[in-house]
Specification:
Layout: H1 11-28, E1 33-35, H2 44-55, E2 60-62, H3 68-73, H4 77-86, E3 100-104, E4 107-111, E5 145-148, E6 151-155, E7 158-159, H5 162-175, E8 181-186, E9 192-197, H6 205-212
Parallel strand pairs: 1-2
Antiparallel strand pairs: 3-4, 4-9, 5-6, 6-7, 8-9
Helix pairs in contact: 1-2, 5-6
Length: 213
């Protein structure tokens, strides 16, 4: 078994899981068009479209944020929320954040807004799944992993399902402030984006890679 220690952006696989679930449900309801809310500035627009093309080649994909006519009427989320409210559908646009966050079971990452400037410290990010190293215990915590056929089946002597292993690894990595990293992402559309992955369990990657394989 080869385990690679490297920065792994989990957003891509997370979008595949989301898309696979949507496509399955849509086929059951005979829905022929998948509409996604990804903007035209990042990789998600391509992920949703490519995953849909692979999972359901005959299904069309609609990207509202790239529809010029729609954007004339709804240039932003506030206008969209106001429109929905007219029909009794609750929608609220929260306060503007200093960065955006992508999160799933396998980890999280922060990017955009203030983080785009390399002069901005990643310390503006509030850890959600862990803590900063300076706040972590000044002590060693030993962790024992048991693998069978390339899969982690037990942690600290307790047999667990893949979901349980990842959840427990999250807790251990989080409380010990593991995984601070910067990333400069080359996006599919040709732009670059700076991201920050603060203390969070996604850095217990060997466990995750084997469980999610």
């Amino acid at each position: 078994m080869v385990v690679i220690f490297a920065d792994w952006n989990t957003t891509g696989i997370g979008r595949f899981v989301t898309c696979a679930g949507l496509v399955k449900a849509m086929k059951e309801k005979d829905v022929a068009v998948l509409s996604h809310g990804a903007t035209g500035r990042g990789n998600d627009q391509m992920r949703f479209e490519r995953y849909t093309n692979v999972l359901a080649p005959n299904m069309a994909v609609y990207a509202p944020w790239r529809d010029a006519e729609l954007l004339e009427e709804f240039p932003g989320r506030s206008e969209m929320a106001t429109y929905l409210n007219k029909f009794g559908i609750e929608a609220f646009v929260g306060p503007k954040k200093k960065y955006s966050t992508d999160a799933n079971l396998a980890g999280l990452s922060h990017e955009a807004e203030d983080l785009e400037s390399v002069e901005t410290s990643m310390l503006i990010v509030e850890p959600e799944m862990g803590k900063w190293p300076a706040e972590a215990p000044d002590a060693i915590e030993e962790v024992e992993l048991q693998f069978e056929a390339g899969r982690c089946v037990a942690l600290n002597g307790k047999r667990m399902t893949p979901l349980q292993v990842i959840t427990e690894a999250n807790a251990i990595g989080g409380r010990n402030g593991l995984g601070v990293s910067h990333a400069l992402e080359n996006r599919i559309i040709g732009t670059k984006s700076r991201g920050a992955a603060p203390p969070a369990p996604p850095r217990s990657k060997p466990v995750r890679m084997c469980c999610l394989r």
